[in-house]
Amino acid sequence: MSDFLLPDIGEGIVECEVVEWRVAEGDQIEEDQPIVEVMTDKALVEITAPEAGVVTKLYVAQGQIAKVHAPLYAYQVDGASNNNSEAEPDGAQSAASEKPMAQTTESSNPTGIPAAGRLYDKVPASPAVRRLVREHSLQLTEIAGSGKDGRVLKEDVLAHLDQASQTAASSSQTVVNNQTVKKQAETQAPRVEPLRGVRAVMAKRMVEAASTIPHFHYGEEIDVTALLALRERLKPLAEAQGERLTLMPFFMKAMALAVAEEPIVNAQLNAAGDELYYYPQCNIGMAVDSKTGLMVPNVKNVERLTLLEIAREVGRLTTSARDGRVDQTDLKGGTISISNIGALGGTYAAPIINAPEAAIVAIGKTQWLPRFDEQGAVQRRAIMTITWAGDHRFIDGGTIARFCNTWKGFLEAPDSMLLHLA
Length: 422
Known about the structure:
The chain is α+β, with helices and mostly antiparallel strands.
């Protein structure tokens, strides 16, 4: 029998939460078969089997914390002989192999899920929904899923709980005084959920950034009427290449060009606060509201990529982040960031810098508003609001203003970017 030790799954990560076991004790496994999903402080990671065999023991229950380099599960390698001095005869081995269902009793199941609960793994649901189900001592197989392919959503769990509550209330023959019910509701303790994973890291980093970096905010309006028209003309060409062209690639490309004019905005201050590092590459991060918390993967070397190549990276990173499966390399090395709050309907924001970067911009929603042209006539224009935050230790208001004006110029006259493309 061999123990599988939880490997290093990220720089500085020493523990993780077991989100979902894909196997149970006694299950036959194949090489590279998904065994368990764990949540680190950065992303959701899927761990596969190193070789074929039979799972003999799960050391860490679902929802509990596993330590790096500690045993995660035990397994018997296919074809391996038992070295115990009291080895069972062939007949006993055959008898043991003919009763796999005995492996799923409560004594051999650390998660406390009965044998029928193995169907739990077959029901599609997000980690957050599975956690909610566990907290209420339910099973996914008991809940009707309204999502795609029978996926169980949070609303399905809440509806199930509400229905169960109503059934219990109707069958009860005890009349409870309304004042007593109100008093009990007022004294009921709140539900406690540990702050773990990505959200725990976000809390720590936001406190550090907000308390150690003096933020300077700068707001502006950008007329993106011409940019929207250009995007509509290019969308069919991008779709023919299998890419979805949003405004984000334009924002990033224009930002990389503006960095060439104001490189200090792409610089970073060292920990001692006495040296500036000017980076030749522009690795632009984009804040993604994932199901596990805020993630900021970045597109590497934007200054050297085409709009189509940027669009491809934006699509890949967005999908990975929303699934909680961003590769560690995609989260490292960012030099400047974009937070597109306008996608959710926000107009203004005061973003917090993603340290050790020096600047971040929050992009608000685009609105069609009346504006005067040079002749004084009123025109209907697409106006986008943006708010910059800069590290005021070495970036002043004039620097942000000049940088923003350059970036704005490229976005308001997107054809002008052609003059600067390599």
